[in-house]
Structures are given as C-alpha cells and as structure tokens.
Amino acid sequence: MMRGRLIRRLFGSAMTGATYGAAVLAILPLAVILGMLLVKGAGSLDWNFFTKSAVPVGEAGGGFAHAIMGTLIIVGLACAVGVPIGVAIGIFLAEFGGGRLGFAVRFIADVLNGVPSIVIGIFAWTWLVKPMGHFSALAGGIALGMILVPILARTTEEMVRLVPNSLREAALALGYQRWRTSLQVVVRTASAGIVTGCLVAVARVAGETAPLLFTALGNQFFSTRIQGPMAALPLQVYLYALGPYDEWHRQAWAGALVLIMLVLALSLVARAVVRAKRQHA
Amino acid sequence: MPRLATDGLTAWYGSTSGVRDVTLACRENTVTALIGPSGCGKSTLLRSLNRMHELVAGTRVTGRVLLDGYDIYEPGINPIQVRRRIGMVFQRPTPFPTMSIAENVAAGLVVGRAVSRTERADIVERALKRAALWDEVKDRLGDSPLELSGGQQQRLCVARTVAPEPEVILLDEPTAALDPGGAAHIEELVQELKREFTVVIVTHNLQQAARVSDYTAFFYLGELVEVGATTKIFTAPAKPQTEAYITGRFG
C-alpha cells in the first residue's frame, strides 16, 4: 500500500512537471523573439527613429517616422472599414443567424478566415489598385479591413452568444422590441468582449505585410495622403531587412521591435478594457 | 369583470401541450398563486399570459387570454404592447449588468411615452420605494446593480417591472433563487403590490402560496385541477389530488 502511494505521488509530480514544461515550451518562442528584437533593435531606437523619415544611404540620422505614421493611418482605415461591418455581421449571426442565411454567412466567414492574406492583397490590387491606376494607402486599409471582417464576425458572434438568455427575456418582458433588446441589452452586455476582440484582431492585421505589398506599396517619404502610396512598419522592415546595408538591417530590427511593441500595447489595452468593464459591471 | 382571464387556454410545445384547456380569472387587486409539482405547466401558463411563451421556437397558444375583456392573442395585437401592460419578474434576478441601478429601473420607460429627466427621476424613486429598495440604494443610484445582494437585485427587478405602470404583474418563482431573508422581503412586497396591481405568482413553496395569495390554482399534469380562495384550497380542497398535494403526499 505504501508503495502504491509512492508511485502515485511520483507519477503526480512527473505529470505536474510535464505541464510546467509544456507551458515553458509555449512561452519560449515569444521570449526568444522578444529577446532577439531587444538585443538587435533596442540600440537603434532613438529620438530620430521616431521623428525622422528615411534618409539616403550613407547619411546618418534616418528614422521610421513615415512608416509608423503610415501604419497608424492604414490600420485606422482598416478599422473604419472592417470594424463596423465585422461587428454588424457578428451581431446578425448571434441574434438572427439561426436560418439558412446565417449558416451561409458563417460558412463564408470561416472560409475567408482561412484565405491567405496575400490572396486578399491580390484581390484588393485587382479591384482597387488597377481601376484607380495607382497604389494607395486607401487600398491597403481596405485590404486589411477585409481581413478584419471575418475574424470580427466570428468573435463578436461568440461574445454575443455568451450573454445569458435570461437578460434577453427580461428585456422582452419589459416590452422591448427585438432590435432594441439586441442592441441596448444584449450587445451592450457583450461590449467589453467585442472591444477586446476588435483590439486583438487589429493587433493581428497591424503586422500583415503581404496584403500591403500590392496596395499601399510603401514609400520612402513621410506621407499622409491616403490616395497615394504610403509606408507601413511591416513593409519598411521587409524592405530594410532585404537591403544590403548594415544600417538598414539595424533599423529593420528596431522597426520590428516597434511593431511588436505596438501589438503588445494593443493587447494590454484590450486587457485593461476588460478589467475596467468588469469592475464597472 | 376580471382584470385578467383565460378561456380554454392551451399552450403548445410543437405537438405536445404544456398546459391544457385552462379557464381561470384573476380579479383586480388580488394575488393568484399557481401551484403544482414540477412540470405541471404552471410556468408555461404564466408565460402565456404576457405572450412570452411564443418566444420559444415551435410553440403556440390556442384559446383566449383576456386583459380587461380584450383577447391579447387576437390577430393584429402587438405582443410588445401586451408586455408593456403585463409585467414579469423571473426566477433569477436579471438586472442589466451594463446599466446603473437607476438606469435599470428606468429601462422600461425607454419604450413607453416620452418622459422628462425630472419626471424620470421621480418615477425611479417611486418605483424603488414601492419595491422597498429606496433606502438601501438612494445614495448609489449610479452604481452597478451587480454590487447588490441577490435579494436586492430581485427587488430591483420588481422596481423595473412596476416603473412603467403595468396593470398586471406576473411573478415566476420570484424567491426560488433567494435566501430566506430575501424571500421574506419579496413576500412582503407582493402584499404591497396587490394594492395597485393584479398579481399572479408561480411558486413551489406551499407556505408561500398560503401566505401571500388570495386565490390559489392547483395544476397537475398540465391541467387545472382546482381553483378557489386560498383559505378554502388549503383547508377544504374539493379534489382528492389537491388535498394529496397540499398535505405533502406527492410533488
């Protein structure tokens, strides 16, 4: 009996150890990537990096200001396009998506979720860039927005479905119309989850490179004109990482670090929103 | 004329009936208790009285429900209008978590006639007083309702239900999820509510039915077995099934 207990304890410890090991294994890549970015990129992060645009090779003091601004503008455009449509589709799916139309929309969203982002880029190039005759930040924003739509549709649907049916019934029993129940009670209750879903999805598309290659194209100069080509962090990193100059490589590392910090900041904001909402709610 | 009455009411789930051929009348300013073992159809009946039953897919209702003599199932009658006149409180407290305490109470006013800001504040105060909750929350009307205890949340739901001035209030096992103290509060409240409203309460608790109601209807296997004055049902029931149930021999 004593022996049986010992074996059981040993087995328990071994399995606990294994789960810890698995957790470390899961975090390890993130730690390695972050560490490498810090080591290689942090050195190039200075005031100039955030305030100056690219300078000709050989000249000192160039920065990524144009790319940072570009990413903010393009991601902002993507949100303007993708968030309302995606969230609206999600609400539709959760509240009225029981029928055949709901099934079809859900299926299409799932398929779109699996489409490689470069295909979205080609699509945007064919339907936006070619007819307009030139590359533009607008096309880039719309391409990223198209990636946002299916992600947001499904996460919004999940969040709205989490709202207990008893709240819906309580609102209907007060004489609320169906739409008012959906918007003022159900969706409002799910809003913290929806906002989190948006921020996470935006963080994901902020790092997309492929769809921007044929749309926003990239730009070595500071530009806020959305009808024209515009730089973006992932594009600039891609360009500089492939270039032959050491200075470019250093700046590419720094750009990647800024990009990942931006994504990290968005995730932290998402968590803060959830916590604030929970405290209020 | 009774305030609320049913006439040959049958509520269906698909092709099976949850409750069959019920004819019942509830007079103004009285409390009618619906009692019976689980699954006897009393909650189904209650949900048919304000057209909540039909919200579940595949359900329908036959027969009539008369509010002040008018059939609420008549074609052309809007169920939303019916629900504004017949309020409902559920088994579990259902405060809206994103609204403050005051906003919760005023939630039903949003869909009624337009009210000014001061009028709204007055209505909120009056509703909270009628729900015996005012003194406990008057200093924190802007707080989240989730900070209240379960019993307070349920009284908040009562306040939310009375604020738009319905004519009838339906209570679906309103104390089932509460501790004894919270339950006692709600029972006192029911006595207050009947001064202004017609009250129908579903309860599993026979003592509660005896304490709060004027009339009691006993349901068994989807049928209305017996209905009468509460004192009569509990002391001299006419049907043997009723007697067996209230003396605790089954159910």
Can you walk through the features of this model?
- The complex is a heterodimer of chains A (281) and B (251).
- Chain A is mainly alpha-helical and 281 residues long.
- Helix content of chain A is 78%, strand content 0%.
- Chain A folds into 2 domains: 2-44; 49-280, MetI-like fold.
- Chain A has 11 helices and no strands.
- Chain A starts with a helix and ends with a helix.
- The relative contact order of chain B is 0.18.
- Chain B has a domain at 4-94 and 168-246: P-loop containing nucleotide triphosphate hydrolases (Rossmann fold), CATH 3.40.50.300.
- In chain B, the strands form 2 sheets. Chain B has a 6-stranded mixed sheet with strand order 6-7-8-3-9-10, with helices on both faces. A 4-stranded antiparallel sheet of chain B has the order 2-1-4-5, with helices on one face.
- The two termini of chain B are 34 Å apart.
- Chain B has helices spanning 42-49, 79-85, 101-106, 117-130, 134-137, 150-162, 180-193, 206-212, 230-235, 240-246; strands at 4-13, 16-26, 31-35, 59-67, 70-71, 86-89, 168-172, 198-202, 215-220, 223-229.
- With 251 residues, chain B is α/β, with parallel strands linked by helices.
- Helices cover 34% and strands 25% of the residues of chain B.
- Chain B contains 10 helices and 10 strands.
- In chain B, helix 4 crosses helix 6 (150-162) and helix 6 runs parallel beside helix 7 (180-193).
- The mean pLDDT of chain B is 93.
- Chain B is globular.
- Chains A and B meet through helix 7 and helix 8 of A and helix 2 and helix 6 of B.
Structure characteristics:
A: 281 residues, mainly alpha, MetI-like fold, 2 domains, 0% strand, globular, B: 251 residues, alpha/beta, four-stranded antiparallel beta sheet, 25% strand
